[in-house]
Specification:
Elements (H helix, E strand, L loop, with lengths): L10 H21 L7 H6 L6 H12 L2 H12 L11 H22 L6 H7 L1 H35 L7 H20 L2 H30 L4 H9 L2 E4 L2 E4 L19 H5 L1 H11 L2 H8 L4 H34 L1 H4 L13 H9 L4 H36 L5 H32 L5 H7 L2 H16 L5 H17 L2 H10 L14 H7 L7 H17 L12
Antiparallel strand pairs: 1-2
Helix pairs in contact: 1-9, 1-17, 3-9, 3-14, 3-17, 4-14, 4-19, 5-12, 5-14, 6-7, 7-8, 7-17, 7-18, 7-19, 7-20, 7-21, 8-17, 8-18, 9-14, 9-17, 12-20, 12-24, 13-17, 17-18, 20-21, 20-24, 21-24
């Protein structure tokens, strides 16, 4: 596979990226200089992590490459606006429930993985089923992020013209997977958390550089920029676009195909964040490394509060890119002589417009969010596999043995994430109109809907048992699958005539959505429907008594 470095990425940029990677390596070695004493130390860091560091680590994990590339894309699009910011309402509601209900419960139960709570509530089989659901869902979610992170890496290594070709994307995915595995192996969760602090600093520096650089390249006053963006009719390079102001934050529309409207923010995004912070061990593991529940809850609240202005900066970058590329009346003679594809706009600007060194800083920031979310996912999946599956079936082994198994698990999960990322290449190609942000967020609902339903039943009710909990996990997954246009596209193609009203030939996602209104639902509503139905299934089981270790 020939390598042609992307135009505009020069020697100084490589020096910056190389310096970042060297800093990452040295920091990992420094923070991991003390060998963990066992799997408990490897996965919980002795419950001695400071809340501020955990907050930075949570922030680094939530801000994936999908945020870096996908969020600016939402405001850059002709009909795009700031409504994605309103989804933080659901995030704030969810994090308060996690901080004051979920985390204290986990600490009282003295769990290493959050699924041990389900063991005491519903039994061993329910715990292992939930752990398996988490691992499957995390492969989906983190594998999608590996795929998205591979796009800019492929642009740098093989040139923009080759970045979307499967062979080059597979090469970039391989590189990312190997790097993530190697530095996750070193020192466990403590090393991951402290390294994430560095990742956060690099990320913030890159975002601010992007905003400042864009602002300086636009020869218009702030008032003119705001006036243009707030107008209901926009004059773009391609013609007039009529719609809501691009500065709209709250969309009160009841259209269920809109993923960032206020009803979706208050329902689907509340559930999505509740599942992410309270039932996904990738996030919850960090909070469990704090010395007590209060510190764990504070770290989660601080993380989501820090994330709001960061997300706003990404949205502002998208707005400024809109002005730079699509507002010739403001740019005048400084208007660029080319138009990038919507999904490549930020990367195109970085590669073609940034001076030497700053392009490297932006790419380093992109890798910071990519590797930050990837290494934490690998560590969390390894912790869940070892604690919930391997140790119960291999009692009496030494701590050094379990530590060795933990590291082998890290390598195994890293390989699986890379494999799923390769599948995402073809998944996205089947539905090209899906934005990267929608894709990254949407895949989380497959496991989250069932997991959240089971945890809600376990924590807030006395109903349910092992059988109903497992049935609920299956229900959540199946419901979300049935709401995917891609699933029905494959079914209609494989079995012509099987689906009533489906197009007889030339099946497309768009034609199936037109035939079946349920397939037009935005991804937050998948979470709502899946969670409600799965909760009803879990709740239907007769109560199973249990004894808390603190009772």
């Amino acid at each position: 596979m020939p390598t042609t470095l992307a135009a505009g990425f020069g020697t100084l940029d490589w020096v910056v990226v190389g310096g970042y990677l060297l800093l990452l390596l040295l920091s990992g070695i420094y923070f991991a200089r003390k060998e963990p004493e066992g799997s408990q130390e490897y996965f919980l860091a002795g419950r001695r992590m400071p809340a501020w560091a955990v907050a930075c680590s949570i922030l680094a994990s939530t801000l994936s490459v999908a945020t870096f590339i996908g969020v600016p894309e939402t405001t850059y699009a002709d009909a795009g606006n700031l409504t994605y910011l309103s989804t933080n309402i659901g995030g704030l509601l969810a994090i308060l429930i996690v901080a004051y209900v979920f985390i204290p419960r986990f600490f009282r139960e003295n769990v290493t993985t959050v699924y041990e709570l389900l063991d005491r509530r519903f039994g061993h089989h329910a715990k292992r089923a939930a752990s398996a659901a988490f691992m499957l869902g995390r492969v989906f979610a983190s594998g999608a992020r590996v795929y998205i992170a591979a796009i800019p890496l492929a642009m740098i290594l093989f040139g923009p013209e080759n970045a979307k070709e499967p062979a080059y994307l597979i090469g970039a995915i391989t590189v990312l997977s190997i790097v993530a595995i190697l530095y996750t192996l070193v020192g466990g969760i403590a090393s991951v958390i402290y390294t994430d602090v560095i990742q956060t600093v690099v990320l913030l520096g890159a975002i601010l550089a992007g905003v400042i650089m864009l602002w300086l390249r636009i020869p218009a006053s702030a008032s003119d920029i705001i006036s243009t963006l707030s107008a209901p009719t926009l004059q773009t390079a391609a013609g007039a676009v009529t719609g809501a102001s691009k500065l709209t934050i709250l969309d009160f529309s009841l259209d269920l195909s809109k993923g960032f409207a206020l009803p979706a923010a208050l329902t689907g995004f509340t559930l999505l964040n509740l599942a992410a912070y309270g039932t996904d061990h990738d996030m919850a593991q960090r909070m469990l490394t704090c010395k007590n529940a209060v510190q764990g809850g504070r770290s989660a609240i601080a993380a989501i509060c820090m994330g709001i202005p960061v997300v706003l900066l990404f949205l502002v970058i998208g707005l400024l890119l809109f002005v730079f590329y699509k507002s010739p009346q403001l740019m005048g003679d400084a208007a660029p002589g080319y138009q990038p594809a919507d999904k490549d706009v930020l990367l195109t600007f970085v590669m073609r417009e940034f001076p030497g060194g700053l392009s490297g800083l932006m790419v380093a920031g992109l890798f910071a969010v990519g590797l930050g979310s990837l290494n934490s996912a690998i560590n969390a999946m390894a912790a869940t596999f070892v604690k919930d599956f391997y140790i119960p079936f291999n009692p009496g082994k030494s701590e050094s043995h379990f530590l060795s198994v933990s590291r082998w698990a890290v390598a195994g999960w890293g390989i699986l994430l890379g494999g799923f990322a390769i599948l995402c290449i073809y998944w996205v190609r089947s539905n090209p109109k899906t934005t990267l942000l929608d894709f990254a967020l949407g895949v989380m609902a497959f496991a989250y809907s069932g997991l959240l339903a089971v945890f809600l039943c376990a924590i807030f009710t006395r109903r349910g048992n092992g059988t109903s909990a497992i049935a609920a996990l299956v229900t959540g997954f199946v419901v979300v699958v049935l709401l995917q246009p891609v699933f029905w596209l494959g079914l209609a193609s494989a079995f012509p005539g099987l689906i009533p009203n489906a197009p007889a030939t030339g099946h497309t996602v768009a034609s199936l959505k037109a035939a079946f209104p349920m397939l037009q639902l935005a991804f937050p509503w998948h979470m709502v429907i899946g969670t409600v139905l799965a909760f009803a299934v879990c709740f239907s089981g007769s109560p199973r008594s249990y004894a808390s270790p603190q009772a």
